[in-house]
Design brief:
Blueprint (H helix, E strand, L loop, with lengths): L1 H7 L7 H4 L16 H9 L3 H15 L4 H13 L3 H14 L4 H13 L3 H14 L4 H13 L3 H14 L3 H13 L3 H14 L4 H14 L2 H14 L4 H13 L3 H14 L4 H13 L3 H14 L4 H13 L3 H14 L4 H13 L3 H14 L4 H13 L3 H21 L6 H16 L6 H5 L1 H17 L60
Protein backbone atom coordinates (compact mmCIF):
# COMPACT_ATOMS: atom_id res chain seq x y z
CA UNK A 1 0.00 0.00 0.00
CA UNK A 2 2.76 2.43 0.84
CA UNK A 3 4.49 1.69 -2.44
CA UNK A 4 1.26 2.38 -4.38
CA UNK A 5 0.79 5.72 -2.61
CA UNK A 6 4.30 6.79 -3.49
CA UNK A 7 3.73 5.80 -7.12
CA UNK A 8 0.52 7.78 -7.43
CA UNK A 9 2.05 11.07 -6.17
CA UNK A 10 2.27 13.66 -8.90
CA UNK A 11 5.61 15.43 -9.26
CA UNK A 12 5.63 19.24 -8.80
CA UNK A 13 7.39 21.34 -11.44
CA UNK A 14 10.71 22.92 -10.48
CA UNK A 15 10.56 26.61 -9.46
CA UNK A 16 11.31 29.21 -12.07
CA UNK A 17 14.05 30.76 -9.88
CA UNK A 18 15.99 27.56 -9.73
CA UNK A 19 15.89 27.35 -13.52
CA UNK A 20 17.39 30.88 -14.06
CA UNK A 21 21.12 30.91 -14.70
CA UNK A 22 23.20 32.71 -12.01
CA UNK A 23 24.73 36.09 -13.00
CA UNK A 24 28.49 36.30 -12.93
CA UNK A 25 30.04 38.74 -10.41
CA UNK A 26 31.35 41.92 -12.05
CA UNK A 27 35.09 42.32 -12.22
CA UNK A 28 36.44 44.57 -9.45
CA UNK A 29 38.51 47.59 -10.43
CA UNK A 30 40.81 49.40 -7.98
CA UNK A 31 39.19 52.52 -6.52
CA UNK A 32 41.73 55.34 -6.39
CA UNK A 33 39.91 57.29 -3.70
CA UNK A 34 38.81 54.51 -1.37
CA UNK A 35 40.99 55.72 1.53
CA UNK A 36 40.60 59.46 0.98
CA UNK A 37 38.20 59.70 3.90
CA UNK A 38 40.80 58.20 6.22
CA UNK A 39 43.52 60.52 4.94
CA UNK A 40 41.24 63.49 5.52
CA UNK A 41 40.36 62.30 9.02
CA UNK A 42 43.99 61.94 10.09
CA UNK A 43 44.91 65.30 8.55
CA UNK A 44 42.22 67.34 10.30
CA UNK A 45 43.14 65.61 13.57
CA UNK A 46 46.76 66.69 12.93
CA UNK A 47 47.89 63.09 13.24
CA UNK A 48 50.42 63.60 10.47
CA UNK A 49 52.45 60.42 10.97
CA UNK A 50 49.39 58.18 10.63
CA UNK A 51 48.24 60.32 7.71
CA UNK A 52 51.56 59.87 5.90
CA UNK A 53 51.40 56.10 6.46
CA UNK A 54 47.93 55.89 4.87
CA UNK A 55 49.07 58.14 2.01
CA UNK A 56 52.05 55.88 1.34
CA UNK A 57 49.82 52.82 1.23
CA UNK A 58 47.30 54.58 -1.02
CA UNK A 59 49.95 55.75 -3.46
CA UNK A 60 51.43 52.23 -3.68
CA UNK A 61 48.01 50.77 -4.51
CA UNK A 62 47.25 53.43 -7.12
CA UNK A 63 50.77 53.63 -8.56
CA UNK A 64 51.05 57.28 -7.58
CA UNK A 65 47.86 58.43 -9.34
CA UNK A 66 45.74 59.40 -6.33
CA UNK A 67 45.55 63.19 -6.59
CA UNK A 68 44.09 63.76 -3.14
CA UNK A 69 46.80 61.73 -1.40
CA UNK A 70 49.51 63.71 -3.20
CA UNK A 71 47.76 66.98 -2.36
CA UNK A 72 47.58 66.22 1.36
CA UNK A 73 51.19 64.97 1.34
CA UNK A 74 52.22 68.35 -0.12
CA UNK A 75 50.29 70.22 2.58
CA UNK A 76 52.06 68.21 5.28
CA UNK A 77 55.46 68.91 3.71
CA UNK A 78 54.68 72.62 3.71
CA UNK A 79 53.68 72.53 7.38
CA UNK A 80 56.97 70.79 8.15
CA UNK A 81 58.90 73.50 6.31
CA UNK A 82 59.80 71.45 3.24
CA UNK A 83 58.55 74.08 0.80
CA UNK A 84 60.47 72.83 -2.25
CA UNK A 85 59.17 69.27 -1.84
CA UNK A 86 55.62 70.58 -1.41
CA UNK A 87 56.01 72.64 -4.59
CA UNK A 88 56.99 69.56 -6.59
CA UNK A 89 54.01 67.58 -5.28
CA UNK A 90 51.57 70.41 -6.02
CA UNK A 91 52.97 70.59 -9.52
CA UNK A 92 52.24 66.85 -9.85
CA UNK A 93 48.64 67.53 -8.78
CA UNK A 94 48.41 70.25 -11.41
CA UNK A 95 49.56 67.77 -14.05
CA UNK A 96 47.01 65.17 -12.92
CA UNK A 97 44.20 67.75 -12.91
CA UNK A 98 45.21 70.68 -15.13
CA UNK A 99 41.76 72.34 -15.02
CA UNK A 100 41.71 72.61 -11.22
CA UNK A 101 42.40 76.19 -10.07
CA UNK A 102 43.04 75.06 -6.48
CA UNK A 103 46.11 73.09 -7.52
CA UNK A 104 47.55 76.13 -9.31
CA UNK A 105 46.82 78.29 -6.27
CA UNK A 106 48.83 75.93 -4.10
CA UNK A 107 51.71 75.91 -6.60
CA UNK A 108 51.71 79.73 -6.54
CA UNK A 109 51.55 79.74 -2.75
CA UNK A 110 54.66 77.56 -2.51
CA UNK A 111 56.48 79.81 -4.99
CA UNK A 112 55.47 82.81 -2.87
CA UNK A 113 56.88 81.18 0.27
CA UNK A 114 60.12 80.50 -1.61
CA UNK A 115 60.35 84.21 -2.43
CA UNK A 116 59.72 83.70 -6.15
CA UNK A 117 57.10 86.41 -6.40
CA UNK A 118 57.22 86.92 -10.17
CA UNK A 119 56.77 83.19 -10.80
CA UNK A 120 53.93 83.14 -8.25
CA UNK A 121 52.19 85.99 -10.11
CA UNK A 122 52.38 84.05 -13.39
CA UNK A 123 50.80 80.97 -11.82
CA UNK A 124 48.10 83.03 -10.07
CA UNK A 125 47.24 84.60 -13.43
CA UNK A 126 46.82 81.11 -14.90
CA UNK A 127 44.58 80.16 -11.98
CA UNK A 128 42.54 83.34 -12.51
CA UNK A 129 41.77 82.22 -16.08
CA UNK A 130 40.22 79.02 -14.67
CA UNK A 131 38.27 80.77 -11.91
CA UNK A 132 37.52 84.47 -12.36
CA UNK A 133 35.35 84.79 -9.23
CA UNK A 134 37.92 83.68 -6.64
CA UNK A 135 38.77 86.61 -4.34
CA UNK A 136 41.77 84.76 -2.89
CA UNK A 137 43.55 84.83 -6.23
CA UNK A 138 43.16 88.61 -6.50
CA UNK A 139 44.16 89.09 -2.87
CA UNK A 140 47.30 86.97 -3.20
CA UNK A 141 48.22 88.70 -6.46
CA UNK A 142 48.03 91.98 -4.56
CA UNK A 143 50.33 90.65 -1.82
CA UNK A 144 52.87 89.48 -4.43
CA UNK A 145 52.86 92.91 -6.08
CA UNK A 146 53.44 94.50 -2.65
CA UNK A 147 56.64 92.48 -2.26
CA UNK A 148 57.71 93.62 -5.73
CA UNK A 149 56.91 97.22 -4.63
CA UNK A 150 54.45 97.61 -7.51
CA UNK A 151 51.90 99.34 -5.32
CA UNK A 152 49.54 100.51 -8.07
CA UNK A 153 49.03 96.97 -9.37
CA UNK A 154 48.73 95.73 -5.80
CA UNK A 155 45.96 98.23 -5.05
CA UNK A 156 44.13 97.26 -8.25
CA UNK A 157 44.17 93.56 -7.35
CA UNK A 158 43.14 94.17 -3.74
CA UNK A 159 40.23 96.36 -4.87
CA UNK A 160 39.19 93.55 -7.23
CA UNK A 161 39.28 91.14 -4.28
CA UNK A 162 37.06 93.48 -2.24
CA UNK A 163 34.64 93.76 -5.19
CA UNK A 164 34.35 89.97 -5.33
CA UNK A 165 34.18 89.37 -1.60
CA UNK A 166 34.94 91.69 1.32
CA UNK A 167 37.39 90.36 3.90
CA UNK A 168 39.20 91.94 6.83
CA UNK A 169 42.56 90.71 5.61
CA UNK A 170 42.22 92.48 2.26
CA UNK A 171 41.42 95.76 4.01
CA UNK A 172 44.49 95.31 6.22
CA UNK A 173 46.83 94.76 3.27
CA UNK A 174 45.33 97.68 1.36
CA UNK A 175 45.83 99.94 4.37
CA UNK A 176 49.44 98.84 4.64
CA UNK A 177 50.10 99.86 1.04
CA UNK A 178 48.97 103.42 1.81
CA UNK A 179 51.13 103.43 4.93
CA UNK A 180 54.16 102.25 2.99
CA UNK A 181 53.52 105.11 0.56
CA UNK A 182 53.29 107.51 3.49
CA UNK A 183 49.65 108.40 2.80
CA UNK A 184 48.27 108.29 6.31
CA UNK A 185 44.91 109.86 5.45
CA UNK A 186 44.05 107.22 2.83
CA UNK A 187 45.17 104.47 5.21
CA UNK A 188 42.81 105.79 7.87
CA UNK A 189 39.94 105.88 5.36
CA UNK A 190 40.58 102.24 4.45
CA UNK A 191 40.69 101.15 8.08
CA UNK A 192 37.50 103.10 8.83
CA UNK A 193 35.72 101.21 6.05
CA UNK A 194 37.15 97.98 7.43
CA UNK A 195 35.83 98.77 10.93
CA UNK A 196 32.40 99.54 9.47
CA UNK A 197 32.45 96.15 7.75
CA UNK A 198 33.81 94.28 10.78
CA UNK A 199 33.18 96.38 13.92
CA UNK A 200 34.30 93.65 16.33
CA UNK A 201 37.69 93.00 14.77
CA UNK A 202 40.11 94.04 17.53
CA UNK A 203 43.08 94.11 15.19
CA UNK A 204 41.41 96.70 12.95
CA UNK A 205 40.24 98.75 15.93
CA UNK A 206 43.72 98.71 17.47
CA UNK A 207 45.43 99.69 14.23
CA UNK A 208 43.02 102.55 13.62
CA UNK A 209 43.51 103.75 17.19
CA UNK A 210 47.28 103.68 16.72
CA UNK A 211 47.05 105.72 13.53
CA UNK A 212 44.99 108.38 15.28
CA UNK A 213 47.54 108.26 18.10
CA UNK A 214 50.35 109.03 15.69
CA UNK A 215 48.39 111.99 14.34
CA UNK A 216 47.89 113.27 17.87
CA UNK A 217 44.10 112.83 17.71
CA UNK A 218 43.97 111.34 21.19
CA UNK A 219 40.22 111.29 21.69
CA UNK A 220 39.55 109.13 18.63
CA UNK A 221 42.59 107.01 19.42
CA UNK A 222 41.32 106.38 22.95
CA UNK A 223 37.83 105.60 21.61
CA UNK A 224 39.01 102.92 19.17
CA UNK A 225 41.51 101.41 21.59
CA UNK A 226 38.77 101.31 24.23
CA UNK A 227 36.45 99.50 21.81
CA UNK A 228 39.20 96.98 21.08
CA UNK A 229 39.62 96.32 24.81
CA UNK A 230 35.85 96.00 25.21
CA UNK A 231 35.79 93.08 22.77
CA UNK A 232 39.10 91.62 23.96
CA UNK A 233 40.25 92.78 27.42
CA UNK A 234 43.51 90.85 27.00
CA UNK A 235 44.52 92.50 23.70
CA UNK A 236 48.08 93.39 24.63
CA UNK A 237 48.58 95.68 21.63
CA UNK A 238 45.67 97.89 22.66
CA UNK A 239 46.77 97.86 26.30
CA UNK A 240 50.30 98.82 25.33
CA UNK A 241 49.01 101.63 23.12
CA UNK A 242 46.77 102.94 25.90
CA UNK A 243 49.74 102.80 28.28
CA UNK A 244 51.88 104.79 25.87
CA UNK A 245 49.17 107.49 25.69
CA UNK A 246 49.21 107.79 29.45
CA UNK A 247 53.00 107.81 29.42
CA UNK A 248 53.04 110.60 26.82
CA UNK A 249 50.88 112.72 29.11
CA UNK A 250 53.10 112.06 32.13
CA UNK A 251 50.93 109.48 33.94
CA UNK A 252 53.86 107.15 34.48
CA UNK A 253 52.38 105.15 37.38
CA UNK A 254 49.15 104.39 35.51
CA UNK A 255 51.15 103.48 32.41
CA UNK A 256 53.32 101.09 34.43
CA UNK A 257 50.15 99.42 35.74
CA UNK A 258 49.06 98.82 32.15
CA UNK A 259 52.48 97.49 31.23
CA UNK A 260 52.32 94.92 34.04
CA UNK A 261 49.29 93.39 32.31
CA UNK A 262 51.12 93.33 28.98
CA UNK A 263 54.19 91.75 30.57
CA UNK A 264 52.12 88.68 31.45
CA UNK A 265 51.12 88.21 27.79
CA UNK A 266 54.38 89.14 26.03
CA UNK A 267 57.23 89.15 28.56
CA UNK A 268 59.87 89.20 25.82
CA UNK A 269 58.58 92.27 23.97
CA UNK A 270 61.36 94.82 23.26
CA UNK A 271 58.94 97.79 22.87
CA UNK A 272 57.36 96.90 26.21
CA UNK A 273 60.67 97.07 28.08
CA UNK A 274 61.62 100.20 26.17
CA UNK A 275 58.41 101.88 27.36
CA UNK A 276 58.87 100.66 30.93
CA UNK A 277 62.42 101.99 30.91
CA UNK A 278 61.28 105.41 29.72
CA UNK A 279 58.57 105.47 32.41
CA UNK A 280 61.31 105.05 35.01
CA UNK A 281 63.29 107.72 33.19
CA UNK A 282 60.33 110.09 33.50
CA UNK A 283 60.18 109.28 37.23
CA UNK A 284 63.94 110.05 37.43
CA UNK A 285 64.77 106.47 38.41
CA UNK A 286 67.70 106.27 36.04
CA UNK A 287 69.26 102.99 37.19
CA UNK A 288 65.95 101.16 36.78
CA UNK A 289 65.52 102.86 33.40
CA UNK A 290 68.91 101.64 32.18
CA UNK A 291 68.19 98.13 33.45
CA UNK A 292 64.92 97.91 31.49
CA UNK A 293 66.42 99.50 28.38
CA UNK A 294 69.35 97.08 28.50
CA UNK A 295 66.87 94.21 28.56
CA UNK A 296 65.05 95.73 25.57
CA UNK A 297 68.40 96.11 23.80
CA UNK A 298 69.23 92.45 24.51
CA UNK A 299 65.92 91.39 22.94
CA UNK A 300 66.26 93.75 19.94
CA UNK A 301 69.92 94.71 19.48
CA UNK A 302 69.30 96.40 16.11
CA UNK A 303 66.43 98.66 17.21
CA UNK A 304 67.78 102.23 16.94
CA UNK A 305 64.99 103.62 19.13
CA UNK A 306 66.18 101.65 22.14
CA UNK A 307 69.79 102.69 21.49
CA UNK A 308 68.61 106.30 21.23
CA UNK A 309 66.93 106.08 24.63
CA UNK A 310 69.96 104.41 26.22
CA UNK A 311 72.14 107.22 24.91
CA UNK A 312 69.71 109.80 26.27
CA UNK A 313 69.60 108.25 29.75
CA UNK A 314 73.39 107.96 29.95
CA UNK A 315 73.70 111.57 28.79
CA UNK A 316 71.32 112.65 31.56
CA UNK A 317 73.44 110.74 34.09
CA UNK A 318 76.56 112.48 32.70
CA UNK A 319 78.02 109.14 31.60
CA UNK A 320 79.22 110.59 28.33
CA UNK A 321 81.38 107.73 27.08
CA UNK A 322 78.49 105.28 27.40
CA UNK A 323 76.17 107.80 25.78
CA UNK A 324 78.60 108.17 22.87
CA UNK A 325 78.68 104.38 22.46
CA UNK A 326 74.90 103.95 22.22
CA UNK A 327 74.29 107.06 20.13
CA UNK A 328 76.95 106.01 17.62
CA UNK A 329 75.26 102.62 17.32
CA UNK A 330 71.87 104.30 16.83
CA UNK A 331 73.30 106.51 14.06
CA UNK A 332 74.55 103.43 12.23
CA UNK A 333 70.96 102.17 12.02
CA UNK A 334 69.27 105.57 11.53
CA UNK A 335 71.76 107.85 9.76
CA UNK A 336 69.12 110.38 8.60
CA UNK A 337 67.94 111.57 12.01
CA UNK A 338 69.34 114.95 13.02
CA UNK A 339 68.53 114.62 16.72
CA UNK A 340 70.90 111.68 17.05
CA UNK A 341 73.78 113.80 15.75
CA UNK A 342 72.82 116.59 18.15
CA UNK A 343 72.93 114.26 21.16
CA UNK A 344 76.20 112.81 19.89
CA UNK A 345 77.62 116.33 19.67
CA UNK A 346 76.58 117.04 23.28
CA UNK A 347 78.40 113.88 24.37
CA UNK A 348 81.50 114.81 22.35
CA UNK A 349 81.51 118.32 23.79
CA UNK A 350 81.55 116.93 27.31
CA UNK A 351 84.26 114.47 26.26
CA UNK A 352 86.33 117.57 25.30
CA UNK A 353 86.34 116.87 21.56
CA UNK A 354 84.97 120.15 20.14
CA UNK A 355 86.09 119.55 16.56
CA UNK A 356 84.11 116.33 16.17
CA UNK A 357 81.25 117.95 18.09
CA UNK A 358 81.13 120.72 15.45
CA UNK A 359 81.02 118.14 12.68
CA UNK A 360 78.15 116.33 14.43
CA UNK A 361 76.25 119.61 14.90
CA UNK A 362 76.78 120.54 11.25
CA UNK A 363 75.29 117.20 10.18
CA UNK A 364 72.39 117.64 12.62
CA UNK A 365 71.62 121.10 11.18
CA UNK A 366 71.75 119.69 7.65
CA UNK A 367 69.33 116.87 8.43
CA UNK A 368 66.90 118.56 10.83
CA UNK A 369 65.06 121.60 9.50
CA UNK A 370 62.52 121.92 12.32
CA UNK A 371 64.09 121.52 15.77
CA UNK A 372 65.39 124.81 17.26
CA UNK A 373 67.30 122.90 19.95
CA UNK A 374 69.85 121.79 17.36
CA UNK A 375 70.73 125.37 16.46
CA UNK A 376 70.68 126.52 20.10
CA UNK A 377 73.15 123.88 21.26
CA UNK A 378 75.34 124.48 18.22
CA UNK A 379 75.32 128.24 18.89
CA UNK A 380 76.37 127.66 22.51
CA UNK A 381 79.29 125.49 21.43
CA UNK A 382 80.44 128.05 18.84
CA UNK A 383 80.15 130.88 21.38
CA UNK A 384 82.25 128.96 23.88
CA UNK A 385 84.87 128.40 21.19
CA UNK A 386 84.98 132.12 20.46
CA UNK A 387 83.24 131.88 17.07
CA UNK A 388 80.68 134.60 17.62
CA UNK A 389 79.73 135.07 13.98
CA UNK A 390 78.90 131.38 13.60
CA UNK A 391 77.04 131.45 16.92
CA UNK A 392 75.00 134.46 15.75
CA UNK A 393 74.09 132.69 12.49
CA UNK A 394 72.86 129.61 14.40
CA UNK A 395 70.96 131.81 16.86
CA UNK A 396 69.14 133.57 14.03
CA UNK A 397 68.32 130.22 12.43
CA UNK A 398 66.93 129.05 15.76
CA UNK A 399 64.69 132.13 15.93
CA UNK A 400 63.29 131.38 12.48
CA UNK A 401 62.41 127.83 13.51
CA UNK A 402 60.79 129.04 16.73
CA UNK A 403 58.61 131.52 14.81
CA UNK A 404 57.58 128.83 12.36
CA UNK A 405 56.60 126.48 15.20
CA UNK A 406 54.66 129.23 16.97
CA UNK A 407 52.79 130.07 13.77
CA UNK A 408 51.93 126.44 13.03
CA UNK A 409 50.73 125.47 16.53
CA UNK A 410 50.27 126.76 20.04
CA UNK A 411 53.47 125.54 21.64
CA UNK A 412 55.02 126.59 24.90
CA UNK A 413 58.72 125.88 25.00
CA UNK A 414 60.72 124.41 27.85
CA UNK A 415 61.60 127.07 30.44
CA UNK A 416 65.28 126.11 30.59
CA UNK A 417 65.56 126.28 26.82
CA UNK A 418 63.99 129.76 26.79
CA UNK A 419 66.30 130.92 29.58
CA UNK A 420 69.36 129.63 27.75
CA UNK A 421 68.25 131.28 24.51
CA UNK A 422 67.74 134.61 26.27
CA UNK A 423 71.19 134.46 27.84
CA UNK A 424 72.79 133.60 24.53
CA UNK A 425 70.92 136.41 22.77
CA UNK A 426 72.00 138.92 25.37
CA UNK A 427 75.61 137.81 25.12
CA UNK A 428 75.69 137.99 21.35
CA UNK A 429 74.15 141.45 21.28
CA UNK A 430 75.83 143.18 24.25
CA UNK A 431 79.05 141.31 24.82
CA UNK A 432 80.38 138.42 26.79
CA UNK A 433 80.77 140.27 30.09
CA UNK A 434 77.10 140.10 31.01
CA UNK A 435 75.20 137.04 32.15
CA UNK A 436 77.75 134.72 30.59
CA UNK A 437 80.51 135.46 33.04
CA UNK A 438 79.76 132.49 35.25
CA UNK A 439 79.19 129.87 32.52
CA UNK A 440 82.26 131.00 30.59
CA UNK A 441 84.52 130.09 33.52
CA UNK A 442 83.83 126.46 32.86
CA UNK A 443 83.13 125.56 29.28
CA UNK A 444 82.16 122.03 30.20
CA UNK A 445 79.66 123.07 32.84
CA UNK A 446 78.22 125.76 30.53
CA UNK A 447 77.56 123.34 27.79
CA UNK A 448 76.34 120.83 30.29
CA UNK A 449 73.61 123.31 31.20
CA UNK A 450 72.45 123.31 27.62
CA UNK A 451 72.56 119.57 27.35
CA UNK A 452 70.60 119.34 30.58
CA UNK A 453 68.07 121.75 29.14
CA UNK A 454 67.84 119.56 26.09
CA UNK A 455 67.60 116.41 28.13
CA UNK A 456 64.86 117.95 30.25
CA UNK A 457 62.85 118.59 27.13
CA UNK A 458 63.38 114.99 26.13
CA UNK A 459 62.34 113.38 29.36
CA UNK A 460 58.60 113.38 29.16
CA UNK A 461 57.68 111.84 25.83
CA UNK A 462 60.18 109.17 25.07
CA UNK A 463 57.90 106.18 25.50
CA UNK A 464 57.36 104.51 22.18
CA UNK A 465 53.77 104.34 21.04
CA UNK A 466 53.92 100.59 20.89
CA UNK A 467 51.35 98.99 18.99
CA UNK A 468 52.99 100.29 16.04
CA UNK A 469 55.90 97.74 16.60
CA UNK A 470 54.89 94.46 17.38
CA UNK A 471 51.45 95.31 17.20
CA UNK A 472 52.64 96.07 13.69
CA UNK A 473 56.22 93.83 14.13
CA UNK A 474 55.36 90.79 13.32
CA UNK A 475 56.85 93.38 12.04
CA UNK A 476 60.24 92.81 12.91
CA UNK A 477 60.76 90.43 10.10
CA UNK A 478 61.13 93.18 7.54
CA UNK A 479 62.63 96.61 7.44
CA UNK A 480 60.74 98.96 9.66
CA UNK A 481 59.98 102.51 8.71
CA UNK A 482 60.06 105.10 11.51
CA UNK A 483 56.76 106.01 13.05
CA UNK A 484 56.02 109.03 15.18
CA UNK A 485 56.11 108.83 18.90
CA UNK A 486 53.16 110.33 20.56
CA UNK A 487 53.48 113.77 22.01
CA UNK A 488 54.27 117.14 20.56
CA UNK A 489 57.28 116.53 18.41
CA UNK A 490 57.22 118.11 15.00
CA UNK A 491 60.35 116.29 13.99
CA UNK A 492 59.19 112.83 13.01
CA UNK A 493 58.32 111.43 9.61
CA UNK A 494 54.87 110.08 8.80
CA UNK A 495 54.47 106.62 10.31
CA UNK A 496 54.22 103.45 8.40
CA UNK A 497 53.05 100.05 9.36
CA UNK A 498 55.13 97.03 8.54
CA UNK A 499 54.06 94.56 5.91
CA UNK A 500 53.59 91.02 7.14
CA UNK A 501 55.64 88.29 5.54
CA UNK A 502 52.44 86.37 4.79
CA UNK A 503 49.05 87.55 3.71
CA UNK A 504 47.86 87.10 7.25
CA UNK A 505 49.27 89.83 9.21
CA UNK A 506 50.57 92.68 11.38
CA UNK A 507 52.88 95.16 14.10
CA UNK A 508 54.10 98.80 14.25
CA UNK A 509 57.49 100.25 15.18
CA UNK A 510 57.98 102.92 17.77
CA UNK A 511 60.08 105.97 17.71
CA UNK A 512 61.68 107.82 20.55
CA UNK A 513 61.99 111.41 19.50
CA UNK A 514 63.20 114.57 21.13
CA UNK A 515 60.25 116.64 22.12
CA UNK A 516 59.38 120.27 22.83
CA UNK A 517 57.11 120.47 25.82
CA UNK A 518 53.56 121.52 25.21
CA UNK A 519 50.87 122.60 27.58
Amino acid sequence: MAEERLATRTPFPASAESQKPRLKKAQEFPILEKQNWLIHLHYIRKDYEACKAVIKEQLQETQGLCEYAIYVQALIFRLEGNIQESLELFQTCAVLSPQCADNLKQVARSLFLLGKHKAAIEVYNEAAKLNQTDWEICHNLGVCYIYLKQFKKAQEQLHNALHLNRHDLTYIMLGKIHLLEGDLDKAIEIYKKAVEFSPENTELLTTLGLLYLQLGIYQKAFEHLGNALTYDPTNYKAILAAGSMMQTHGDFDVALTKYRVVACAVPESPPLWNNIGMCFFGKKKYVAAISCLKRANYLAPFDWKILYNLGLVHLTMQQYASAFHFLSAAINFQPKMGELYMLLAVALTNLEDPENAKRAYAEAVRLDKCNPLVNLNYAVLLYNQGEKQGALAQYQEMEKKVHLLQDSSSLEFDAEMVDMAQKLGAALQVGEALVWTKPVKDTKSKHRTTSTSKAASLQQPLGSNQALGQAMSSAAAYGKLPSGAGGTSHLTKPPSLPLEPQPTVEAHPNEASAQIREK
